[in-house]
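INFO  loader      accepted 1 record
INFO  loader      residues=76
INFO  predictor   begin
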Amino acid sequence: MKDLVQFLTEVGDEVVLEKRLKALLTPNEINEMQHRLQIFSLLEQGVPQRDIAKQLGVGIATVTRGSRALKELKEI
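INFO  predictor   done
INFO  writer      dumping tokens
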């Protein structure tokens, strides 16, 4: 994990960072990460999990995993 973090953070240019992410991830993986960020945002706005799942077209389990991940981030 340390190598990955270093690989992504050693660049100061957003364009280069985007290229590195595209080199590492499939389009589907990028889409899943974008969904996770949307889930985080909607959860922070107080939107109910079932509404988030319906709005984003993802399963309730995906939203629940996002909710747990967001709680872990807040504990840091």
